[in-house]
Each structure stands twice: as structure tokens, then as C-alpha cells.
Amino acid sequence: MTPCLVFFPHTQRQYLVLVPFLIHTETTEKICVQLNHLNESVTLKITLEYGGRNKSLIRDVLVAKTDHFQWNRPTDSPVVLLTVSVKGDTLSFWSRKTVLVQNLDNLVFVQTDKPIYKPGQEVMFRIASMDENFHPLNGKDPKRNRLFQWQNVELKVGLVQLSFPLTSEPKQGTYKVVVKKPSGSNVEQTFEVKEYVFFTIQCLLSLLPCLLLIHRYTYGKPVPGLVKVQICRPYSSPWNDCYGKESEAVCKEFNGQGCLTRVVQTSLFQLKRSGYKMNLRVEGTIVEEGTGMELNGSAFTDITRTLSKATFENLDPYYKPGIPFQGQVRPLVDGTNQPITNGTISIQVGAKKTNYTTNDQGQVQFSIDTTNFTGDSIWIKAKYKSTPYCYDRNWEFPSHHEAYFTAFYFYSPSRSYLHIESVSKTLNCEQNQAVRVHYVLNLDVIKDEKIVFHYLVCLNGAITVPHWPHLLIKKQEDSLVHMAPVAHLLVYTILPNGELLAHSADFVVENCFSNKVRLWFSDSVGLPASKTQLHLAASEGSLCAVHAVDKSVFILKPKAELSSQTVYKLLPVQNLNFYRYESWAVDDPDSTKCIHFKTIFVGGIGYYPINFSFYTGDAYKILQVIFHFSWGSSATNTIKCRELTITLFPSAYALHEPGPPGSPMFGVSQEPEKISQPVRSFFPETWLWDLYVISIPVTIPDTITEWRAGAYCMSAEAGFGLASPVALKAFQPFFLDLTMPYSVVRGEKFILKATVFTYLPRCLRVKMMLDPSPDFTASPEEKEEESHCVCANGRKTVSWMVTPRSLGEVKFTASAEALSSDQPCGNEIVEIPSEGKKDTLIKSLIVEVCVCVLAAFILGEKYPHSEPVSLKVPENVVEESARASFCVLGDILGSAIQNLHQLLRMPYGCGEQNMALFAPNIYILKYLNNTRQLTEDIKSKAIGYLVSGYQRQLNYKHSDGSYSTFGERRGEPGNAWLTAFVLRSMAQAKNHIFVEQSHISDAQAWLAVRQKENGCFQSSGTLLNNALKGGVDDEVSLSAYTTIALLEMPLPVTHSVVRNALFCLETAAESKEINVYTRALMAYAFALAGKEEKRDEMLRLLHAVAVEEDGSLHWQRPKKLGEEKEDLPSYYHRAPSAEVEMTSYVLMAYLTKRPAPSEDDLKTATQIVLWLIKQQNPTGGFSSTQDTMVALQALSLYSALTFVRSSKGVQVTLNAGENALKQFQVERDNRLLLQCQAVPKLPGDYRIEVTGEGCVFAQTTLKYNVQPCQEEVPFALEVHTVPETCTGPKANKVFNLAINVSYTGKRPVSNMAIVDVKMLSGYIPSKPSVRKLENHNLVQRTETSSSHVLIYLEKVTNATQSYTFTIEQDVPVQGLKPALVKVYDYYETDEFALAEYNAPCNAGKV
After folding, report:
1. Model confidence at 335, in pLDDT bands (50, 70, 90)?
2. Alpha-carbon distance 339 to 358, whole Å?
3. In the CATH hierarchy, which fold is given to the domain comprising 417-574+675-729?
4. What is the pLDDT of residues 700-722, one digit of tens each?
5. Which residue, 596, 671, 1005, 1164, shows the most beta carbons closer than 10 Å to its own?
6. Is 1032 strand, coil or helix?
7. For residues 64 and 4, is the Cβ–Cβ distance under 8 A?
8. Which helix (H) or strand (E) segment is 922 a member of?
9. Per residue in 844-865, is it b (16+ CB within 10 Å) or e — as a string?
10. Where is the Alpha-2-macroglobulin domain positioned along the sequence (predicted)?
11. Could you say which DSSP state residue 480 is in?
């Protein structure tokens, strides 16, 4: 805290104390104490009083000295007492004030790379931390939010950069990044997650006196095409339905080409009549030339009753007699807020009117002579025109808005005044500003005394610049850059009679920073994929955060960029008023008491005190904006009482006390001062996001758009700096674009359109080519020409009819090249661009077949041997669709490790299915870590899947802590099975990723509440796999499943919930009628609990019903009456999901024995493993979600127990007859490497030979397509279009698809079923119509993509369920093949039905 002291020797001693009513801890504050006419030594003492204690801050004699101290607020209350006392031999004064003390807090903001994200994208963000002077703070701050947490985040030069991924299916809406500061307060930054599409076209639609409709590409060029516009004025209450749309609004339609400017005759819309809404709405559509792409835009404009509007600005609340009252009329505007120039405004004060003329901005400056004013206020009116009175309820009433203002009298006992002339503009922080001060002094009071004016500048509530005439500010750094955002200037003096004259004014200063940061590109326009230089200029030692984002992001979410206003708003105090801060208000307990005057009589004439209003101003009100204050002298003085003597006196202006050049930023002044051709394939949304210290070379992405770049820098010396945003237009004056469908079916044809654009001022002669490929055939739609003319701002489209020949991804490479030619284009000579002479573009297409895919594999034994492999295909195989591969791994979990993201070739759209993505990562990480095989690459991938799985699973959490398959909807309760599994998995995942403890605690508490008195758990929710229900006591199986989850968390056996659950299982174990599935669960639960006798008993009973086949062992569910093994057309029949699951539980029961499983246990376990791995799919998963999760857990446990680090390797050879096709070497270092070889001939006979020592896993995958042929199927599926026949040209562009499905299988109902609708080539689903399906009771969820629609059904019964949604044509395709609709049981995937459909105008065609 710094005291500010001034002394002047004189017989009449005076003092003034100024104390900011808000002070901060851990910083230097200033208290100003002014002692005038001092003729003796005095002692200054300043103390703080709080909680019954005193703390002395300053105790000094006579001299000004700076004492620093740090003081933390001791209590929750920020209110303390500050006492200032001055004592000498004859002089003594004492003042106590209540002040607010605020703990110093750092300024923190969070910046995300974008304001809006798509599902599956990575959210990148930065944290910046500064002090209140915008200098970096390097500390460790934890960051926390709902999905992720980083502990002990270390900042470098006040900055840190973090990121996290979004799942592919996050809950859409607003998210928060929350940063917890050392003070305990939080800083939040929001961002939005939603599905969105970037249009290369931007629609700008506005209503001026004429209609302006502009469609532009994001790189700024206009879009050619047909424009349709409708402009309407809606009725205020369209209640009549008899006339349809006609009764809603009065409308006008018109068409045009490209950018449209049209004068609209407003008489049609009856703008002056009532009965309509007071706005005009416009909707515009453009169909892009060449591609047929359609884009919509809309806008509206209000219809105003206001003809003109006048407003005052920068008016002082008080007038002071003798000092001109100056003000300004804010731009006089019309009803559209456009300034009215050369308009006459009348300024009226009382009965006096003065006319002024508005300038070219519609403004008026005026001045009022106040010399003869004596009233308690003056009333000011600004008037442009009178409002005509023409009211009629059928017509709108026009008006001219006038401005009114009341200025109150400013009281001074001596009628002496100070006034700081305001500055209406925002001050430039790079320049000094002279300030004019007016004063009027009563000569009878000042007599021959020297009057000294003093000033203070306060920033953010604190005194920063105390100044007296004999003290000069000499530091160049004291410039306006340190005065933002608002500088509060106080000018004052004390008259010889002890009266305080004061005035203050606020000056708005440009928000700028000491660290001058500049950012610029070498060129404002660059070719896609070309090199450019991004330049940075900042103070030495700065660390700069740079970003560059596609402009389209800010079209979707404007006003989301970091600005200087954003940073300055972080300041806890920007301006203070009348002892109020946040929710605190401080009273001034010892204000100077006023003297009440009485009426006096002189010579028989009575003199009465003037009756001043409550709003009258005085020096007290001036100072109480920021300061507590006390002043006094040996003469009696008053603040609020009035002196009767009225003296007329001249006024003087502008006392000037100059300083050295560049010193004071506020003075009292006499007068105011005046390439090569790359292929484009990189199209990001965020281009640059990194921390730099120097300028960096960058490569422009391939997107033709405008990039918006920004940067801010932090320096320990210069602090924070923000660069103005810059733009780089990635643009080729001539470039190519391809229009094609997302996918087609083999045999279909489509038109591939290549369009070349040019924005050069002269014509080009362009050669357009489509590179040949064995994967497709292409023939020109028109007569092929060697080159084409493309003139200024024009385009040319060339089309090929394409027939794909290969399956899978097919790449198309097209190019356009500007040729040097003497052949003119019309009468114009062609030119060649200086750069960008050729543009090459590659796009991919998926070629499919309209049939299903089946697969199988075999296992190579663990010991050296030779084994034949015969690969056969059925007779009805689709020609050329068969393909096979042979793969070798050194680990039975190798396939799963390689395919953690796609263990199932099924959708993951519910809470149970999501766990199939989540849980296996835990088992894999544990296994690889225990066997010391975990690499950073695998760890990073697995943790990434854990993070996304955790994030997605929270979508299915209920408010009571439970989880269900589709989340909290329609009042459905949580699912006890799923909640138990999520509880176990999240508790185990906490070792690898951040998991909020409340999610674990909530789920555990929800399960505990459902534990009954006998220790069993009450069932809740629906188990969608009803294969586990038949003959199963749900209560016992659920209790065993929940007990397993609690023990694996792990909770101790002594935990009350676990102890009671085991009692339930021990009681149930005494029953002889226990289902195989339940017994398998109980065996594993007893094994985890260490109850060996119970475990052994369960395993003995299970072994008695085991099925042994070819040296393997497994368990199967009891066969129901009439249920037989189906003869499905697959290479190898995989077991049902329920049998894989129960067999896996038995395997884990054998392996979970303390201290270790016996030799017999391991021998039995190996037999079980031999059967399990034959049930795996090619990616390492199984047939459904539950069996995949449990089986992988069991296999990881077996692999860890049997893992051996062999020093020798295994050699595997794939032979075709006598020829060796491929030789594989499996060693310790590559045992997790998936080595594969395509099989050249199908059908065919092959042989596998294995030599060496070690364990090897060999897998053959055969895939082929068959025509859908069904005889007896468990579902009845019927699909048709609406309309069913070709009723017109529009029928092929938009139609509805109707689906009818019912269950005809051997069970009462199906499990959860999926209806998978494949889109026709060139067609896309209407997402709103698909989402409406979720209103059906049995529809739990829908998903849409470019080529599929998935409908999740809770179950399918024998009652027919009907669903309809809309399909739209995106790109025309010829020879359209039918598309498949498939319904299948999610847990019994062998149960399915197929149906076909085609577009109405293609129905029946092949």
C-alpha cells in the first residue's frame, strides 16, 4: 500500500484523505493523504481492523514512502475497517472508513479451436492464466469437467494446450470445459456438439429498400443457378382455414438467375395498415448450375412505426452555473437506423429553442450558457419533427421520437466549480490524450491565494496515477495502453476557506495490450496444397498460440472468436459506482454533517434558503463513486449545506501544467489535441492449432475456402497480446469439382460430372480428363472434345457414364489443365494462368453387391503339424464375390487387439452394445501389461476407446444412478443387469482413464437399495436377450451376476452388500433345479469369493452336462421342444450367443482358484478355449455383445496364466499343392502382429504346415455373397414404396418407404431386433422423417448414415408393426439395382429375413 502525501506550509492547516473503498490483497494499493499549510512534524498511521484485531500497515513521520505488504482476507466477510490518523503537537485528525477487501485472483480463459463440433471430432482447447496486469502466471491448475479430468496441469508462460475426443454418438447439445482456479472459483467455456454439414455455398439474404439475395461460395464468388424467392407479410391472426396458405400471409414470388437484386413494390404488403404482423419474411432457394445442388436461405425485416429517433449522449448529470453545458445528440436516425444528414434539430431549454443542423453522421454538438441559471434543474429536449396525430385502429400510427434530459444543479457554497470536458470517442491506446478542464472560482474566496489543482487516475477501482504540479510522470510506459478499459479521472482542489472542489469523468480507452502481436500471411491468397509463410511478431520471449479455422465454422457459429473485449471482461473490477461491488454495498459512516441554514431578515427583507432536490450534485457525490474520503480545516465547512451569498464572477478556462514529452497521459490543457500441381485430398476444418515462438512455414490445406487465423502471445516481460484476425483465401483461379454418389451396387451405372470453374478475367482453353482404371469403365455423355472454352467467371461441366467393375472402394482421378493454344474462344484470345495451371482431384466410391456376407475360420494347433484346408463356396454364390485370406498370429487375443474398434460387425447404438466397445479394452490392457507386451501404440488406442466408450455410456445413465439399454426415456426403469456390468467396468477403467467417482457411487447405491432381505437382488428393467430367460430364475441369476460385478470392482467379501449376496447364492445352490447358465454364473461368483467347496461343487455338476466335441468342451442351453440345429449356408456354424457366454463363465471359474489353478483345471480350460476360439468372428469378437465381453475376459485370463516367453519362433507355411504361397515367421517380438495372405483361387484346396516351438494361431477367413434365398424364416418382412408405381417425374426424386414386420419364429417374441435399410444408390434418407419413427412405442432408437437407416426395435411379436420414412434422390444413377432391407435378431443373428425395394420408376427393372 502506498500513501500519497503533499505538504504546504501555511497558517491555515488543511487535510484530505482519499481511500479506495475496494482494495486487493497481495498487491500494492495507494491511499492519498494531503496535508496543506503544515508547520510542524506529524506522524501518519494507517491500520486495518478485522475480527477484533488490528494490523498496522503504515507508520511514518512526514515523508512519503512506499511500504509493501501482503494480507490475506481472514474471514468470509470482505468488510474491514481502515483507520487513518495524523498526529502532531497541535494537529490531530482521525478518520475511519469501512472498505471491501478482495483476495487477488488470476485471470483465466479457455479457448477451443472451434465453437461447434461434429460427433467423433477432437476437441482441442487452451488454458491461459494471467494476473490482473495481463502478465502470465505459471502454476498448476486442475481442470475438471463431466467427461475428463486433468490433474496438476502445468502451464508454460501462462499457457497449456489439451485435447480430448468426442465419441461418434455423443449426446448432442452444449458442453462445458471447466477450469478450477487456485482460489476455488471456476472458469467455463462452452461449445456445441451437433450434426452439421458444411456448405460450400453461403446464402446472404437481406431486405433494403430493395430485396438483395446473394448466394456465394465460401471463397467469395457468386453461385450461378436458378433462384426462387418468396416475400410475405403474415396476417397477425390467420384464423380462417378455408383458404389455406392464402389466409396466412400476403405473398409475392419471383425468379431470377445468380445474385438477385429486385425492387419490391411494397404497396402490395399494405405497410401502413394494421391487421398484419410488423415484419416481412423472405425465403430464397437456389439450384446450382451444373450440379443441381439446392440451398435455402431466409431473412426477415421489421416494419417500423418510427419515422425518426433522437437520443442524447455524453451529457453530464449536473449543470454548473457559469460553465457551458455541452452535449451531443447521438446520430439522428430514421426507422431503419440510418443517419439523417442535414436535418434540423431543435434544442429546447425551458422556453428557449435553438436550431442545429446534423452533420454527415447525423450528429449535433450543442452548448448551453448556464451563467444565469439558478434553478435546481434544467430540462432539455431535442426534437426533429412533430408527430402527426392520425390515429385509426385500421392504420398504423407513425411517430417521431424526441429526446429528453434533466440536468440537476451542482451545489457549491462559494459557487466555485470544476468541470472536466468529456471526450465522446474511444481513446486510442497508442496516443496521449489532452483533456480540457473548465473552472469558475469565487474571487472573494480565493483572494490572493495560489490555487493548485491536483488529479488522480483510477483504473479498475485502484489509484494508479497520483499527480501534483511539482511531481512529473517521467516513465514512457505510462501511456494509454495501461488505461483500458475505463480510466476514471479526478481533478480537485481545496479552497482557502476549506471548501473542496472536485469533478470526475470516465474515459473509455481502446482495449489493447502491452505485448504488440501481429499475425500475417505472406500472401492473402494461395493455391490449395501450396506452401506459404505465417509470420508472427511479438515481444521478445513470447510464446504464441496460433489457430486457423475454416471460415465456414463461423458462418455456423458467429461471434465465437477470441477478442480483446473477451479478455478485458475477465477483470474482476472494471468500474465502480457508489460504494457497490458485486453483491456488497459499503456505507460511509462518518460523512461530514451539514449545517442547516435558517431564514434571515435584513432591513425588513427575508432571505430564504434555496430548496434543492435530492438529485442535486456536490463534491460528496463526485468522490463517492470510487473513494471514501475525509477532509477538514480550522474553518468550518460543509458538504450538503447551502450558503446564501450569491456572487457574480468571471470564468476562467484551462489551467495548464505541462510535463515533459511523453509523460502525462492526462493533463489539463489549453486546447484539445487532433507451385507444382499437387492432388487435393486434405480437407480439415481446423488447419492450425499449436504453440509457436517464431514464424513458421505452413502448407495450405486442399479445401477451397477462406481460412481465418488468429493468435495471442504471452511474455513474462510484456504480458499478454492479441493479434487482429487475418484471413487467407485458399483459392485457385481455375479448379475442378466432382459430383458422384456415395456408393453404388455393382452393375449400376451413374453419371460422373466434372465441373471446372474459372474466375480469371480472360478465357481459358481447358482439357478435362478422367484417368482410366481397370476398376470401372467410363464413356463420355457428349461428343468428346480435345479442349473446352471456359471464360471469365464461367464454368464447364463434362459428364461420363460410369460402370464400376470391382467391389469395394473405387478411386476416380480427374484433372483439368489449362492449355496453351492459338485457337480463340469466340473472339477472345485465351490466356494461361501464371499459377495453378492444372488441378487434379481424387474421390472414392463404394461399390457393393446386394447380398449378405458370411465368414468362418479355422485354428492351427499349438504343436508342429500339417493340416489341410478346403475352401468351398455354395452353388448360388454371386460371380466374383468370393474372397479369402489366411492370417497368422502368435496370440489368441491378437485379432481382438488389432480390431478393438470393430469386434462386432454390428451397430453399437445402445447402452449394452456400447459396453462391447468399452469393456474389452480393460481386459486387453490388463493382459498385455501383466505379460509385458503393452506398447505405447496399443495403450494409446485402447485408452482412446475407453475414453469414447465411457463418454458414450453416460448417455444411457438415469437420474437415479442406474443404466438402461436406451437411457432414461418414456419412464422406463433402469436395468439391473446392465447397471451391474457398468459399475464393474467403470470401477476397473478408473485405473486407466478419468471416471467421475459419482458415476460409480450412484450405480453402487442404486443396486444396494434393490437388495432384498434374503440378500438377493430385485430384478429391474428388461433383459433384451430373452435366450437367457427361458427356465432361468431371474432373481438368482441376477444376484449371481451382480455379485460377480461387485467382487470384480473389487469390493471385499466382508462388505455388507457382498456378504448378503453370497448368502443368497449359497441358499439358492442347495436347489437341484438350477439352469446351466445360472450355475455357470454361481460357479464363477463362488470362485471370486474364495469359496472353493461351493465352486468345486458347481463345476462338478456343470461337467456332468458338458458337451465334448473333437477334443473341445462347451456348454449349451437346454433344447426346447421342436428346436433343432439349423442347417445354415455358412462355412462353419457358430454357436448361439448364450452358449458362448455361459461357457466363458465356466472357463473363468476354472481359472479363478487360489493360489493358482491346478494342472487338471488348466487341462480342462484348454479344452474350453479350443471350442471358444472357433466361435470367434474374423475381427476377434463373437456373435453379439454379451458373449464378446465375457469371452474376451475369459480368454485374456487364460492367456495371462499360460503365457510363455519362448526364445524360439514358429514358422507357418501356406501351400497350394506343391507350391508355397507364403511363409510366416512368428517370434516373440512379433507375436501380436497380424500377418495375412490373400488366397488366390476359390474354391480350392490348401495345406498349412507348422514347425518350430511355441503357440501359433492360424485363421482362414472366407467371404462370399449369395443371392437372398429364404424358405423358412423367423420374421415376416414386407417392404414397398409409396407410391408403388411411377406416377410422375417427382416420384423418383422423393418417395416414402413402408416396412411391415412381425415375428414368426419358435419363441413367443424375438429379442431386440434391428431393421437395417440399405439406401438405393444415389439416394439418401430424410433424417427428420426417420427421427419421427422414435415416437413409436417399440422403436427405441434410429440411426442414419449416407447408405443405411437402422431402426432398433425392443422386440418383434406376431402382431405386424408398420414403419414409414422418406427417401430423397441425391445423385441420379442409371440401371438402379434393388436395395436390401434386413431384419434380424440382435442376439440370435442367424434369425433374419430379407426383402428388396426399388424406386417407383425403376420397380420391376433389372
Report:
1. confident
2. 9
3. S-adenosyl-L-methionine-dependent methyltransferases (2.20.130)
4. 887 777 888 888 888 888 889 88
5. 1164
6. coil
7. yes
8. helix 911-930
9. ebbbbbbbbebbbbbbbebeee
10. 686-770
11. G
| Contact present, 387 and 355 (Cβ < 8 Å) | no
Q: Which amino acid is at 770?
A: L
Question: 1270-1402 adopts what CATH topology?
Answer: Immunoglobulin-like (2.60.40)
**DSSP SS3 for 158:** coil
| Strand duo 211-217 + 173-180: pairing | unpaired
Cell of residue 1349, nine digits = 437407416
Beta bridge partners of 250: 233
Nearest C-alpha neighbor of 655 from the set 499, 453, 455, 457:
453
What is the average pLDDT across 1-9?
A: 39
Q: How many Cα atoms are found within 13 Å in the side-chain-facing hemisphere of 340?
A: 21
Classify residue 828 by its DSSP letter: B
pLDDT at residue 628 is higher than 80: no
Residue 161: which residues within 8 A CB-CB, separation 6 or more? 124, 125, 126, 545, 689, 690, 691
Sequence ranges of the chain with CATH classification 2.20.130.20? 417-574+675-729
Rounded alpha-carbon distances, angstroms, from residue 483 to 463, 479, 516, 673, 1196: 12, 7, 16, 18, 66
- CB contact burial 1353-1369 (16+ within 10 A = b; e otherwise): bbbbeeeebebebbbeb
Cα separation, 85 vs 42, in Å, equals 10
Cell numbers of 322, please?
Answer: 457559469
**What pLDDT was estimated at residue 68?**
39
Please confirm whether the linkage preceding 469 is cis (ω < 30° from 0): no
Class of the 106-196 domain? mainly beta
Measure CA of the first residue to CA of the last residue in the chain; give whole Å: 91
Query: What's the rounded Cα separation, in Å, for the pair 793 and 537?
Result: 37
One DSSP character per residue, 789-825 reads EE-TT-EEEEEEEEEE-SSEEEEEEEEEEEPP-SS-B
d(CA 49, CA 81): 5
**Beta strand residue intervals within 976-1122, DSSP E:** 1107-1109, 1112-1114
Q: Do β-strands 1257-1266 and 883-889 pair in parallel, antiparallel, or remain unpaired?
A: antiparallel
Delimiting residues of CATH 2.60.40.1930 domain(s) in the chain = 2-102, 106-196
Domain span(s) for CATH 2.60.40.10 in the chain: 734-848
Q: Cis (ω within 30 of 0) for the bond into 1243?
A: yes
Classified by CATH at the fold level, domain 2-102 comes out as Immunoglobulin-like (2.60.40)
CATH 2.60.40.10 fits 734-848, yes or no: yes
Length of the chain, in residues: 1406
Reduced 3-state DSSP string for 1210-1233: EEEEEEECCEEEEEEEECHHHCCC
The β-bridge relationship of strands 838-848 and 679-680 is parallel
CA distance 1250 to 602: 131
Q: Please, what is the average pLDDT of the chain?
A: 78
Using one digit for the tens of pLDDT, what is the confidence trace for 348-391?
998 889 999 999 889 999 999 998 888 888 999 999 988 877 77
* Protein fold of 201-302: Immunoglobulin-like (2.60.40)
C-alpha cell belonging to residue 635: 474553518
Summarize the confidence of residues 892-920 as an average pLDDT. 77
Contact 1349, 1317 (CB under 8 A): yes
Distance set, CA 492 to CA 13, 270, 1250 (Å): 17, 60, 100
* CA atoms of 476 and 665, how far apart (whole Å): 10
pLDDT tens per residue, range 754-768? 988 887 788 888 898
Better-scored residue on pLDDT, 1148 or 1021:
1148
Query: CATH 2.60.40.1940 region(s) of the chain?
Result: 201-302
